[in-house]
């Protein structure tokens, strides 16, 4: 049986309560921008030693300037330079900033989520390859969550070549490559689905059968309740 870690994408409750019940959290504010090193330093210091953070890389790396996610961005943009892993100063600076935050958090995983508009066109694939072949990853594990229409064989080929872990919502598809499982549960359309005990039992049995180390992150409206239910079910298996 592999090790499983369960958490939420962001803090749905107060940090003290969260640290007391779960052992993993994916930092989301790093994606939108404006997250200070002082803040993440405080999070790391107040969390238990065994608590683990993962980090979602800046949208400047992955998302084009017309993406609605920039509504929460307070900085200035060089619009021709951002998103789609473009080989630009803005993109590489954003990566270095994301990596610095991850280092302070003592995180070992950085997630790169690409939007549906990032399709498998020649230029996008070229940018993806150049980016992950260029950046200094040090000891980090890189996770890629493609949202566009990508063929499984191509995802596998790219993940294998670039040493990426394929991230999916396991209720939508199954990962095709990675030394561990990194799963993000989005709650279906509009993030409003509350997972049933039966759904989570089936998912956890599948995870158990893979014998892989697993990061299971809830990113739906009911993430707090669902994550705790998931832990209770796992502890009884």
User: What is CATH's topology name?
Assistant: TIM Barrel
N-to-C SSE string, H for helix and E for strand: EHEHHEHHEHEHEEHEH
The spatial strand order of the largest sheet comes to: 1-2-3-4-5-6-7-8
> CATH top level?
Alpha Beta
Topology:
Elements: E1 4-9, H1 15-21, E2 24-27, H2 29-32, H3 37-46, E3 52-56, H4 59-62, H5 89-105, E4 109-114, H6 122-134, E5 141-146, H7 152-162, E6 164-168, E7 181-185, H8 197-210, E8 214-218, H9 223-236
Parallel strand pairs: 1-2, 1-8, 2-3, 3-4, 4-5, 5-6, 6-7, 7-8
Describe the structure.
The chain is α/β, with parallel strands linked by helices. The protein has one domain (4-236): Protein of unknown function UPF0759 (TIM Barrel), CATH 3.20.20. It is 40% helix and 18% strand. The chain has nine helices and eight strands. The protein has helices spanning 15-21, 29-32, 37-46, 59-62, 89-105, 122-134, 152-162, 197-210, 223-236, and strands spanning 4-9, 24-27, 52-56, 109-114, 141-146, 164-168, 181-185, 214-218. The protein has an eight-stranded parallel β-barrel. Helix 1 links the parallel strand 1 and strand 2 (24-27). It is globular and about 50 Å long.
Essential attributes:
237 residues, alpha/beta, TIM Barrel, 9 helices, 8 strands, 40% helix
Quick structural gist:
This protein has helices at residues 15-21, 29-32, 37-46, 59-62, 89-105, 122-134, 152-162, 197-210, 223-236; strands at 4-9, 24-27, 52-56, 109-114, 141-146, 164-168, 181-185, 214-218. With 237 residues, the chain is of the alpha/beta class. The chain has one domain (4-236): Alpha-Beta Barrel (TIM Barrel), CATH 3.20.20.
